[in-house]
Request: fold
Amino acid sequence: MKIITALFLTLSITFISKAQTTFQFAIIGDYGKAGTNELNVSNLVKSWNPEFIITLGDNNYELGEQSTIDTNIGKYYSQFIFPYTGSYGTGDTVNRFYPSLGNHDWYTDTASAYLNYFSLPGNERYYDFIKGNIHFFAIDSDPNEPDGVDSNSVQALWLKNSLAASSQKFNLVYFHHPPYSSGQHGNNPYMNWPFKRWGADAVLAGHDHTYERIILNEFLYIVNGLGGKSIYTFNTPVTGSAVRYNNNYGAMLAKTYEDSLVFRFYTVTPTLRDYYKLLPAKKTLLLTSLIEGFYDSDSGLSVMDTIKVLLRKTVSPYEEVDSVIVLMSSSGTGTLEFNKALNSTPYYVVVKHRNSIETWSSSGNSFSANNLSYDFTGAVSKAYGNNLKLKGSKYCIYSGDINQDGYIDGSDVSLVDNDVLISASGYLNTDLSGDNFTDINDLSLVDNNSFTSVIAVKP
Ligand SMILES: [Fe+2]
Reply:
């Protein structure tokens, strides 16, 4: 009996953890106008049984009034709202409705009907929450926002800092006024914040009562305002506009997987109108490292060669997370792109080179907003165990581990010695200076490092 219970528990836990990486949520915009169109869209959304709903603003037409809010929202979506105090049922037991403010929500009494109706995180006008592998950021794009709406505002600074601190696989930013749109309202340049640079993966907005997918500078912008109010025409397509639709009402279904996030736009019939698969942003490491034998401290230049860089976890057994091979420049710099690393998660940076000692960073380093810089050459303390050799004014990775066993010792000296004897030439691991000849200079280098017993130092 105990075994059966244990098995059942294991199965339940497996099921729950899978449900967290694969789940779906709905996205509606410009929907809050009681009537057949909103009813049809809400039925479409409910047919998906989404875990939760986010909204792209204009939740309560026409004027954001207390007297209309429940018939515009609760009548159709009360079963996602907690706490719910309206007249359409009892609401939910946890909140599964995450709206953002639109211009219509602000028209009466500084959005007080909306702010009273919903119980949301933070200051409720803009806030964030995490579900599964996604960090959501609801922004208030209305110019009445007390904390401002330009890219230097208090609100924008909050977003920038919050994105920098996020460790989720995806960061989704959503609000009402789209930075780019081919619809009647068009672009809202004041909302053109540096979302990508700050670490966001996509921006979702409404305001134009259309559906549009825009890919600009390799960044995804969605306009989704067909939630029930009315339908707008398009003007000339903006740069990057990839898909435009405005023949019927609809909503978006988003489904998240271990390594992707898939967006679908459906109209109410229901008919699939767009599909887009978003992959996690690559993490970019700007690395500086020099190899003792290859670096010429007089010219300040290095012989170019490939190295392998690994990211390892900072807790035992220091599991490898990802690795990339890169050709380093003559100034010792390389740009490496990792697919599996997360932001705000520390990793050891480990450099491996075909005839150098494996060298680890002194501590864990985290990507922030998809970027990290690490320079091994600036101080001896940049390497774990101070395992660097000063050459001129630069700290270099020790040369001489020809057989890559983690020790520079007699066996490495012997390998170089053999090649010196036969005057070997070419791209050989025994050529420590990178001049394509294995000669007395190389022997001297490996001999010195063997004499001082240079080994790979790692945690
Ligand atoms: Fe609007």
Q: What stands out?
A: Residues 1-19 have pLDDT under 50 and may be disordered. The pocket of fe (ii) ion is lined by residues 58, 102-104, 176, 207 (CB under 6 Å). The chain has two domains: 19-278, 283-406.
